[in-house]
Structure formats: structure tokens, C-alpha cells
Design brief:
This protein is an alpha+beta fold. The chain folds into 4 domains: about 210 residues, Histidine kinase-like ATPase, C-terminal domain (Heat Shock Protein 90, 2-Layer Sandwich); about 140 residues, 2-Layer Sandwich (Ribosomal Protein S5, domain 2), CATH 3.30.230; about 90 residues, Rossmann fold; about 160 residues, Four Helix Bundle (Hemerythrin (Met), subunit A) (Up-down Bundle), CATH 1.20.120. The protein is built from 20 helices and 21 strands. It has an 8-stranded mixed beta sheet with strand order 5-4-3-6-2-1-7-8, covered by helices on one side. The N and C termini lie far apart (about 110 Å). InterPro entries: HATPase_C_sf, Heat_shock_protein_90_CS, HSP90_C, Hsp90_fam, Hsp90_N, Ribosomal_Su5_D2-typ_SF.
Length: about 675
């Protein structure tokens, strides 16, 4: 057995750092500026402990571009480094001075950013050469200059430097010269350094004067060192929260609510989350929550730290306890992440409930903009569902709002069917389904308005949670069958009359991509003569298929509707009378042909009663086949006669078009024909 050490040299590491350590090259600016901020924060810590007794002065970090020299310089007046410290922290890759400092001053150094000791080397991703010029805060220190061209070779020499602190001078390579453009650096500073705790300056402030942009003498300050989330909620007004939102999203519409996160146990977490207005579709506005670590921007892809539905929120989360990968570009899987995620979910739900209790009227006024967010959460997070059911609202077609518990109290007595199920009627469009809503209200029923894109999914979930509550769309059946309490009144038509009317109405029904089934109901003389309904199950499957690719097979199925003929209406009686007047003799002749055939078929059926198939003589089988063929042919003749009558009957066409119109299904050329026909009929 032998032991040893794996050897990793800087020559091996440089190519990895330059190509693979960071997902985006532009992160180099964040890393170098963050190091400068750390150096400044360290000096403040030493001053607070009495170890540094000098004048702190105006602590800041400055960024400067020299296009002619092709350099970017980041300067601080922080703690500085001696020659020994450069050899320790710079020449030993991944030896983190920040972590060592944190261990020593863990009770005072809460805002130190660095952790892995690799940030400085990100400068080589964009540079052919990097210089460090530093003068330590220590009394009698000698300024030194370290230079390296991105290989294991470096130089370290004594130089003159007037002021305490460190200058990082990056000599930008030819293929990275985009970073010598002022606008590019300004954008990156705004992205990564907007809220760093030490002032960051970049050149001079510009303003428009006499129609042109002029440079002022005022330093161009990049950041807000004390953003709203770092303050106590008690120190902020409602206007402060709105101002911070505008700072984050200058072009954004004003949010509905905000939640201030301020946790110090069992992990540290601060932040402010805003509820944006979400219209009547799931506008997945991801990349709107910004994740920070000690005020340093990390990412705006926060799916790992917050549940999926919370990615619809806007705002900021800041936590030093969130585990990051070595380049601080994204989250790493960790037990803390789940704890933080669960806490944020609970905090959001509890805050919404508090807002609901405190000012219900205001909550109701904002519900239409808020509901998709709440519904999304209830559908995707079980723990959120359990909390949200206390403030999730249902709205009826009269514009009144109810919790599910309140709604059950109101409708249970009148809308419970004979099976003991409470039936919640709903409409998806109050105008298009007005006729059906009106019929339901006439029966004393209440109708919910469920026009959100997620309502169909929510209905399924609500039904699973409460098995004795069913949601039924108001146009899915005739009103007497929506909530069945007694036996439905039987139709007063004979089976023969129904069989005659089926081809009559089929003759005028649209045929493209839609299936219609003619049905008969006794709805009362005052109800509509013809109505169109669609079964609840079929509609739900089609609606869900539209949002779920995994259910595409349902979306490809043709739509299927019921054309319900009201057998009590006088117009239906008139159609039957007209049919008898015009087709009576022909139908009598056809029926006369059918009668003996039906009798013969009955006799043949009687002969094979109690016999197995192989015991029936072939002669009888052949005779049955011939009789059935004749019946089929004569029935086809009969159906052709009724179809011809139906095609020529304007009342039939008018009734069907009226039913289609009531369902917003009559359009284009057919609608134009309907209008012309209506005018002709009332001339």
C-alpha cells in the first residue's frame, strides 16, 4: 500500500479557469468589483475592532476604461495587500482570503462576499495580462506590483503608490475588446453591481444640455448601497416599496402587493417579493426575481430556490446561506434550498391571507389579476393549496366573491342533486352563455364565472379534494338535467315521431369537424325549441388537451354536441304536422313495405330462439339476411324522404341556426345567410 498527493499545477488550472469556470465571460467584472468591495469591507471591520486606527476616508470602488491602452482598471481604497499577502492569496489559486478573514472576524464581517478564492482569476478570461498594484493599510507598508500573462510565470516588484488600496489593471485581449466600450461596461455594472454595499463609480455623470449630451464633474454613481430589502419593514413606507419596484423594473406596471422577507433563523434570508398583474392567461414571466448573495447579483433564474409558481413573482431574494457553485453563477442542490423554498411558500401564503383578512374589499378588487398566480400555486404545490383555500375566491356571474366555504353555505340547499352531490354551475363566458345562465337563474340557481385559463384544471383538483362537490358548465345539458332532483319528465313524442325528426334535423346540421347527436327532451312550452349542449367530460378533455401536450389525442378528436329538441314547443309540433301534410302518403307507402318485413323478421327470430348458431338451418340464415337487407334499403328510402323534407324546411334551418347563434357557433357565410333568411321570413 502506498499514499501520495494528487498534483494540480497552475499550468493545468489556467485553461480551465479561462474557458470553463464561468458560464459567461462578462462575470469577470462582477468578481473583480466584488473583491474590491470585500477589501473595503475588511478595512471597515478592522476599523470597528480598533485594529486599524487610520482615517477611512471616502470609501469607494472606481471602474475606469482606457481604450487607447486597452485596459480596464478597478480601484479601491480598502485594506490593500503586502508582498507576503499577494504571494499567499494570489499565487496560491483557490486560497480564499475572504474565507480566512471571515473565520477570524466571523462576528463582525457579515458583508464579506468572497468564498472560493477563484474570483480574481476570472480576469484572465478577457485579458492577455493582469497587473495588481497594491499598498497595504499596515503602517510602513511598501507598495508592490504583481503581473501575470495568464500562465504560471509572474513578476512581483516594489513600486510607488500614493494611496492605500488596490488597483486591478486588466489588459483586454483583442477578441474581448467589446469590454472596452463604455456602454457595455455600464450595462454590466447595472446588472451585477447595482446594489453593492460600497459606492461604485464609473466615469463622470452625463446629462443633456442644449440638445446634446455633456459630461459633468459629478462622479457617475452606479449603485444604491442600502436598497430597500436591507432595511427593516418598519422603516419603509408604501411609497418606498413602490419606488424600489420602479428601480427594479422601470417600465413595469405597478404591482398588486408586496411581501418583505426578513429571516435570521434557521437561515439568513432577506428580500422583497412583488405580485405583478397577470392577465387572463398564464404569462410565464420568469427571470423576474433576482437572486443576490450579500447584495451581489447572482442570477435571475431562481427555479431552484423558489417553487415553480413563485417564479411568476417579481422582486429580490438575498441570502448568504444559499449554496452556489464555484463560479457563483447558479444554485447547487442542498438541504438548505428546500428549507428556504418551503419557508418562502409559507410566507407568501400567510401574507396573502393577512392581506385578505385586513382589507377584503381591496383583495377582491385585485383578485382577477391575482387569481392565476394563486391557482397556479394550488395546482402545483400541495402545501400552498392547504393554506390558499382560505383565501382563494370564486366569483359568480353577478360579480360577487366567495370563499369555497362561503359558497357551499349559500348554494348547498338548492343545488344538491338526488345523489347528495352539491352541484356548482359555472360559465366560462357570461355573454356567450347568457341564455343558459338566464335559464339556470330562473330555476333559482347561482352560476359561477370561471374564465381563467387554469380554471379547468382547478375544477378537477377541487372535485378530487371534495368528492361530493361537482362542477358542471351551465351549457353542458338542459337546465332540468344540470341538477337532477327528480325524474326528468318524459317526452310526449312517440318513438316513430322521434325517428322521423332525427333525419329532418340532421339534414340541416353543420357537418365539418363536428359531430351532432339529435336528442329529445320535454322542457316545457316556454323554453327554447332547440338547444345545443356539450357533455361536461368531453369539453374538459378538449380544454385540457389545449394546454397539455400529453393529452393531444383528446384535442384531435372532433367536437361532439347534443342538439336538444324541445318536444313541448309548438314549433316542433308544427314541423311534425308539416311533415305529415307533405310526406304522409309517401311515408305511409314506405311503412306499408316495412310492416310485413318486420313481421317476417320476428317470425325468423322466433324460429331460432333457444338454438345455438350452428343449429339454425342455412336456409333460415339466408332468409334473415335477405329480410334485413330489404329493411335496410327501405329505411334508407324512408330517411332520404325525411332528409329531403328537412332540407326544404326553413323553420328547421332557422331553429338550428338560432341554437348555433346562442352558442356563438354561427359565423361567416352561414351567419350572413341566417340574417337574410330572417329578413325574408318577417317581410
Amino acid at each position: 500500500m502506498s499514499t501520495g498527493k494528487i498534483g494540480v499545477t497552475s499550468q493545468d488550472l489556467f485553461p480551465i479557469i479561462k474557458k470553463f469556470l464561468y458560464s459567461d465571460h462578462d462575470i469577470f467584472l462582477r468578481e473583480i468589483v466584488s473583491n474590491a468591495v470585500d477589501a473595503t469591507q475588511k478595512l471597515k471591520t478592522l476599523s470597528s475592532t480598533g485594529e486599524f486606527k487610520g482615517d477611512l476616508g471616502d470609501l469607494k470602488v472606481s471602474v475606469a476604461i482606457d481604450k487607447e491602452a486597452k485596459t480596464i482598471t478597478i480601484s479601491d481604497n480598502g485594506i490593500g495587500m503586502t508582498q507576503e499577502e499577494i504571494e499567499k492569496y494570489i499565487n496560491q489559486i483557490a486560497f480564499s482570503g475572504a474565507e480566512e478573514f471571515m473565520d477570524k472576524y466571523k462576528d463582525q464581517a457579515n458583508a464579506i462576499i468572497g468564498h472560493f478564492g477563484l474570483g480574481f482569476y476570472s480576469s484572465f478570461m478577457v485579458s492577455d495580462k493582469v497587473d495588481i498594484i497594491s499598498l497595504s493599510h499596515k503602517e510602513g507598508a511598501q507598495a508592490v506590483k504583481w503581473s501575470c500573462e495568464g500562465n504560471p510565470e509572474y513578476t512581483l516588484e516594489e513600486v510607488e503608490k500614493a494611496d492605500r488600496g488596490t488597483d486591478i489593471v486588466m489588459h483586454i485581449s483583442e477578441d474581448e475588446k467589446e469590454f472596452l466600450e463604455e456602454g457595455r461596461i455600464q450595462d454590466l455594472l447595472n446588472k451585477y453591481c447595482k446594489f453593492l454595499p460600497i459606492e461604485i463609480t464609473f466615469g463622470k455623470k452625463k446629462e443633456w444640455k442644449d440638445g446634446k449630451e455633456v459630461v459633468t464633474e459629478e462622479a457617475n454613481l452606479i449603485n444604491d448601497t442600502t436598497p430597500a430589502w436591507t432595511k427593516k419593514p418598519s422603516d419603509l413606507t408604501e411609497e418606498n416599496y413602490k419606488d424600489f419596484y420602479r428601480q427594479l423594473y422601470p417600465m413595469g406596471e405597478e404591482p398588486l402587493f408586496h411581501i418583505h422577507l426578513n429571516v435570521d433563523y434557521p437561515f439568513n434570508l432577506t428580500g422583497i417579493l412583488y405580485f405583478p398583474k397577470i392577465k387572463n392567461s398564464v404569462e410565464i414571466q420568469k427571470n423576474k426575481i433576482q437572486l443576490y448573495c450579500n447584495q451581489v447579483f447572482v442570477t435571475d433564474s431562481v427555479e431552484g430556490i423558489v417553487p415553480e409558481f413563485l417564479t411568476l413573482l417579481h422582486g429580490v431574494i438575498d441570502s448568504p446561506d444559499i449554496p452556489l457553485n464555484v463560479s457563483r453563477s447558479y444554485l447547487q442542490s442542498d438541504g438548505n434550498v428546500k428549507k428556504i423554498s418551503n419557508h418562502i411558500t409559507k410566507k407568501v401564503a400567510d401574507s396573502l391571507f393577512d392581506i385578505f383578512k385586513k382589507d377584503r374589499e381591496d383583495f377582491e378588487n385585485k383578485w382577477d389579476d391575482l387569481r392565476i398566480f394563486v391557482q397556479y400555486g394550488m395546482l402545483s404545490e400541495e402545501k400552498f393549496y392547504d393554506r390558499a383555500k382560505k383565501f382563494m375566491l370564486l366569483k359568480n356571474t353577478d360579480g360577487k366573491y366567495f370563499t369555497t366555504e362561503e359558497y357551499e353555505t349559500i348554494v348547498k340547499e338548492n343545488q344538491t342533486d338526488k345523489e347528495g352531490n352539491m352541484i356548482c354551475l359555472y360559465a366560462t363566458n357570461a355573454e356567450e352563455q347568457y341564455t343558459y345562465i338566464d335559464l339556470a337563474k330562473a330555476k333559482g340557481y347561482d352560476v359561477l364565472l370561471m374564465d381563467s385559463q387554469l380554471d379547468n384544471h382547478l375544477i378537477n383538483t377541487l372535485e378530487q379534494k371534495t368528492t361530493t362537490t361537482k362542477y358542471v358548465r351551465v351549457d353542458s345539458d338542459v337546465v332540468d338535467k344540470l341538477i337532477q332532483k327528480d325524474e326528468v319528465k318524459a317526452s310526449n313524442l312517440t318513438e316513430e315521431q322521434k325517428n322521423d325528426l332525427i333525419p329532418v334535423f340532421n339534414s340541416q346540421l353543420p357537418s365539418e369537424k363536428v359531430n351532432y347527436i339529435v336528442a329529445f327532451e320535454s322542457l316545457g312550452a316556454e323554453s327554447q325549441p332547440v338547444m345545443i349542449t356539450q357533455a361536461e367530460f368531453m369539453r374538459r378533455m378538449k380544454d385540457m388537451a389545449a394546454m397539455n401536450p400529453g393529452m393531444a389525442m383528446y384535442g384531435e378528436m372532433p367536437d361532439s354536441y347534443n342538439l336538444v329538441v324541445n318536444t313541448d314547443h309548438a314549433l316542433i309540433e308544427n314541423i311534425l304536422s308539416d311533415k305529415d301534410d307533405k310526406m304522409g302518403a309517401n311515408l305511409t307507402d314506405v311503412n306499408a313495405k316495412l310492416t310485413p318485413l318486420f313481421e317476417e323478421r320476428a317470425q325468423l327470430d322466433a324460429l331460432k330462439k333457444d338454438k345455438k348458431e350452428d343449429e339454425v338451418p342455412q336456409e333460415e340464415k339466408d332468409k334473415m339476411t335477405e329480410v334485413q337487407k330489404q329493411i335496410t334499403e327501405i329505411n334508407a328510402e324512408r330517411e332520404a324522404l325525411l332528409t329531403g323534407f328537412g332540407k326544404d324546411n326553413q323553420i328547421v334551418k332557422q331553429l338550428i341556426d338560432l341554437a348555433l347563434l346562442a352558442n356563438n357557433m354561427l359565423k361567416g357565410e352561414e351567419l350572413a345567410k341566417f340574417v337574410k333568411r330572417s329578413v325574408d321570413m318577417i317581410k
